[in-house]
Structure formats: C-alpha cells, structure tokens
Amino acid sequence: MGSPDSGEEIVNECAIWETLRTNGKSDAVKVRETLAKAREAKGLEPSEVAVLSAISDPDLTFELFAAARSVKEKIYGRRLVLFAPLYVSNLCGNECLYCAFRARNKDVERRALSMGEIEREVKVLVEQGHKRVLLVAGEAYPNRGFDYILDAIAVIYRTRIGRGEIRRVNVNIAPLSVEEFRRLKGAGIGTYQLFQETYHRETYANVHVGGRKRDYDWRLAAMDRAMEAGIDDVGIGVLFGLFDWRFEILALMQHIGHLERKYGVGPHTISVPRLEPATGSDLASHPPKPVNDADFRKIVAILRLAVPYTGIIMSTRETPNLRRETFALGVSQISAGSRTNPGGYSTDEEEDAGQFSLGDHRPLDEVVRDITILGYIPSFCTACYRLGRTGHDFMDLAKPGEIKNRCDPNALATFLEYLLDYASPATREAGEKLIEETLAAMPEVQREPAMKMLAKVREGKRDVFF
Ligand code: SAM
Ligand code: SF4
C-alpha cells in the first residue's frame, strides 16, 4: 500500500489556519449557499465546513440545525443504534493529563478483569438487553500482553445467557502495529475506534507528557495501519475542550480526506467526546478550550452535513437533555447505562472509580423508553457487520440510500426482540405503539420484509436480519 505517510501529509496545520482565515468570517450569503449544497447530502469541502463553523447569528444557526435535521432524517430515518462500553482494564503506561487512568494517578485503584470477570460483566449487559459492546482499555496489558485483548474478545463473543448474546464487539484501545491489527481483525471485531484527542501538535505535546502516547504520528497513522491490516470500519474522534474546536473539525476533515483518497473509504464513525472532570486531573476540570453547549450542538450539526454517511456517536458523558437535542441534529449511535470502571456492571462501586464523570446515569430501559417516546427507533442491529457489509461495501449500499430499506426493518426486528425479552412493561407498551406507527408510515418495500421479520420474532425466533 505504499510508504507510510508523515503526519504532515495527513494533517496540515498551515492549511487549516489558512482555510479558517479565508472562510472563517461570518457571511450570510456564503452560509446560505453552503447550506443549500449541504441539503443534497453529498458532503462538504473543508472550506465549506469553515464557513459553517463561523456562524454566530441565531437565524443562521436555526437554518444550520434545520439542514442538519433534514440530512439526518433522509439518511438515518428515526433510528438510533445503542451500545454499552465495556472497560476491561484501567492499567496504563501513559500520562494523559486529562484522564483518571494516567499512570501516575494514585487515586484510582488499578484493575484488569480476569476472563471470568469479563464473562460476568457481559452477562449483566446481555441481561439488560445489549447486543453491541465497545471494549475499552488503558494502554498497558496484564501478563499476556496484547493477547489479553484477543482473549477478552473471544470471551465476549462466546458468552451466552438466556436468549441473548453480544453480536458485535467494537474496540477502543491504543494504536497497534499492522501485524497486531491483523490479529485484531482475526478476532472478529466490528469497528476499531481511536481518538486523536487533539490534532494540534503543540497542544498534544502539552497534555501527553509520558508513555508511548506522546508519539503524535504513531497515533495519527493508526487508521492507516488498521486499513492496511484489512480493518475497514474505523472510528475517529476528537476530545473537545483541549483545543479550538474549529481547528479540530477541519483537521478531522483532512484525516477523513486522507483515508478516502488512500483507501477509497472514510471512517465508519466519528465520536465527539467532551472533556469531563476526572479523578486526579486538574486539566479535566479546567479544559483549556472549553466547548459550550451551543457550540457543541453546532459541531454535531456541521459534522452531519460534512460527512452525511459517517455515523456520529454520543456517549453518556453528556446529559440526557443535550443528548436528546443532538439526536435530531445528527447523532446516529449512543451508549446507554454505561460504567467506565472495570467491573462496574457486576459490582456497585462508587462512580469516581471510573474514567471520567458521566452526565447520563439512566439504565438502558429508561433510555430506550425515553427515545421511544421521542419517536426514535432504538436499534440493536448488527446486520451489516455480520453480512460483511463493511468499508466500501457498506458505503456502496449507503450512498444511493439503499441501506435504509434494510436498516429500518432490521432495527424494528431487534427492537422487538428487546421489548419481548428485556423491557419493563412501560417500555414495552411505548415500544409496541411505536412499531405499529412506524409500520403504518413505511413504504411498501420496507413494510413487507419488516412484517415478516417481526412475525418471526414474535414466534420466538431470535437474531433475524437481512
Ligand atoms: N487508552 C486508549 C486511548 O487512550 O486511546 C483507549 C481508551 S481511553 C480510556 C478512551 C478515550 O477516553 C480517550 O481516547 C479519551 O478521548 C477519552 N477520555 C479520557 N479522559 C477523558 C475525560 N476526562 N473526559 C472525557 N473523555 C476522556
Ligand atoms: Fe491511558 Fe487512554 Fe487514559 Fe491516556 S486516555 S491515560 S492512554 S487510558
């Protein structure tokens, strides 16, 4: 696949500043032209992203949000995919000044779950109704080294309880070599997720002061190595609050452009974590460049318009209210019922043992009921990855809009599974009503397969998808 790119070839800071300088002044005419193009759902150029990032006028902000809503609805309909993070270990050799797991922090008890403990955690998640987990770990593994992660993935996939199991394991772990990425792919992962934290080199150096993570370029080129190893669903992200968000979203655009040019496919997802307070971290309580709620909504809306086919992930770092608002603006996947301390699902430890503080503490059932009442279809679907619809193949189906005909029926079938097997009576009632309304409003091409799949689920069949 050619020689590795230097960091500057992936992210060019001078070009970002120049784009912001020439396009970053509020200009109503340019904004409206850009929004008209954005509504076609074909994506935006970096210069257009800069134009939108300069919006401050309330009327233009309203128009930005309206455009984002329409693109979100066009591509994702009313679906919201649900997952839970599974923290297996908080051992870490790095010194990221914002994170409770940083090596020198003595306020957190260190723990790497045994395979038996991981199984116990998975059982709790399956019994709540989860089908997707995001495995998370610090950058230091116990005795078996990286094989610890591979063993953990195997345990997650083979754990079954009642009628349920985890059907897709995504991972968020430190950057690997190509050879290690090949082994990770061999373990059957869904998405490999890694956040650059900040694309701004100087800030990166200031907040990563020890351990392997200091190497900005090794981290930046991780997605190239993953792609070279055959992992074609990758998830990128920025930890908002470390540096100027306008710079960061343009850097994200450059990273995406690089992956598209080199591998023919961009990232499967973008995550938008905001810095939250963390035990033993002054920096986390005083973000150098805090992003307020108003700008945070803009970030989600702009990303939705810039890369319409890339999923946007919203975690439980944010409060229920802000999460609700951003669903309409572009978020397509959310975590729910999360714990960020290893063993947190099967024990009742204090939350401050977690990686950072959470904004949404509600259990999965409550989140499902809430989004159902708001009219969103909670989806536990894992069909694409199970049918090999990843990378190019996914985008080939997604871009002409064909994927929607499969996603809606698949979402309803997995939602009904959840309602029948795990939901509280109140959630089941709200869910059945939403399924009925959704079927009634569906075009015939979707309704027929959806009705068949729902009938199978009601007859007792599980894991029905197409
Ligand atoms: N250790 C690996 C790494 O750093 O990439 C993977 C796991 S790390 C626990 C996952 C992510 O948590 C980091 O990429 C970072 O963005 C996020 N994180 C760390 N501290 C945080 C904080 N105080 N608030 C919000 N997110 C935080
Ligand atoms: Fe370790 Fe990741 Fe936390 Fe940094 S962000 S201290 S690498 S767990």
What is the secondary structure topology, with strand pairs?
Elements: H1 7-10, H2 13-23, H3 28-38, H4 46-53, H5 58-76, E1 79-89, H6 115-128, E2 132-137, H7 147-158, E3 160-161, E4 164-165, E5 168-172, H8 178-186, E6 192-193, H9 201-207, H10 216-220, H11 222-228, E7 234-237, H12 245-263, E8 269-271, H13 282-285, H14 293-306, E9 311-314, H15 320-329, E10 333-335, H16 364-373, E11 377-379, H17 383-386, H18 391-398, H19 403-421, H20 425-441, H21 444-459
Parallel strand pairs: 1-2, 1-10, 1-11, 2-5, 6-7, 7-8, 8-9, 9-10
Antiparallel strand pairs: 3-4
Helix pairs in contact: 2-4, 2-12, 3-5, 4-12, 4-14, 5-14, 6-7, 14-15, 16-20, 19-20, 19-21
Bound molecules: S-adenosylmethionine and iron/sulfur cluster.
What is this entry, summarized?
By secondary structure, the protein is an alpha/beta fold. Helix content is 49%, strand content 10%.
Radius of gyration: 21 Å
Mean pLDDT: 94
The CATH topology of one domain is given as TIM Barrel
CATH class of one domain: Alpha Beta
How many strand units? 11
- Category from helices, strands and their pairing: alpha/beta
State which percent range the strand residues make up. 5-15%
Distance between the termini: 33 Å
Classify the helix fraction into a percent range. 40-55%
CATH architecture of one domain: Alpha-Beta Barrel
Low-confidence stretches: none
Ligands and ions found: S-adenosylmethionine, iron/sulfur cluster
Name the CATH superfamily classification of one domain: Aldolase class I
Shape: globular
